[in-house]
Write a structure and sequence with these properties.
Number of strands: 3
Oligomer: single chain
Order of helices and strands: HHEEEHHHHHHHH
Number of helices: 10
Structural class: mainly alpha
Mean pLDDT: 80
Strand content: under 5%
Shape: globular
Largest sheet: 3 strands, mixed
């Protein structure tokens, strides 16, 4: 299977402020409001963000621009779109069974606390914990990762890329980042790469539905 690697070597150091402004123009307006791009030259990772917790308002994306500049511009475009799509795609509060169970557990726990019923408090707390765990898992599933890729490709098409072209740039960007960081692709990245190959027309094999549910 043919591997694509598009690493651009730059002789001049990238200006982080200029690149941040450029990336903000690439990002959708909703992402510009919800996230913040931050230069972090000391980190060994090209681009990094943490899983957004419901009580944390800020959603920073840290970029090592010394490593970032080794990627081609299309790769950088698709990687930033994918990162913000993942960050803004994590939803803790949206109508669903588990959100309802979580809310019921929290409210029930407050009621039992007021009434001084320790058994009821434990039961309500356990219910809320189970629901919260399910919400956490659903936000970190393989399907969520693939959805973030799809969302990035949709935005990229509004920025002038064709879908197969955008998929190829995201695919080679994922591979190039792993090469720059001197590591192997993770299992999730391998699944994403296979899915992107199918979208790019580089492979007739996509991701089985069973694998998407993991």
């Amino acid at each position: 299977m043919r591997q694509f690697t598009e690493v651009t070597l730059c002789h001049n150091s990238m200006n982080p402020d200029f690149e941040i402004r450029r990336l903000l123009d690439v990002m959708p307006a909703s992402a510009r409001m919800a996230t913040k791009l931050v230069s972090k030259p000391e980190q060994p990772i090209v681009v990094h963000c943490t899983f957004p917790l419901p009580w944390v308002r800020d959603r920073p994306i840290w970029i090592n621009f010394d490593l970032w500049e080794r990627l081609s511009r299309p790769q950088r475009d698709l990687l930033i779109l994918r990162t913000v799509s993942w960050l803004t795609g994590v939803k803790w509060f949206r109508p669903s069974l588990y959100q309802g169970v979580l809310l019921a557990g929290v409210v029930g726990g407050i009621v039992e606390l007021v009434q001084g019923d320790p058994v009821g408090m434990i039961a309500a707390g356990g219910l809320a914990a189970i629901a919260g765990t399910q919400i956490w898992r659903s936000n970190r599933s393989t399907q969520t990762e693939l959805d973030a890729d799809d969302a990035a490709l949709r935005v990229a098409q509004r920025r002038g890329y064709e879908e197969p072209e955008a998929a190829r740039h995201l695919l080679t960007g994922v591979e190039a980042v792993a090469e720059i960081e001197r590591r192997s692709l993770t299992f999730t990245e391998l699944l994403r790469s296979q899915n992107l190959r199918a979208i790019a027309g580089l492979s007739p094999v996509g991701i089985p539905d069973r694998a998407r549910q993991n």
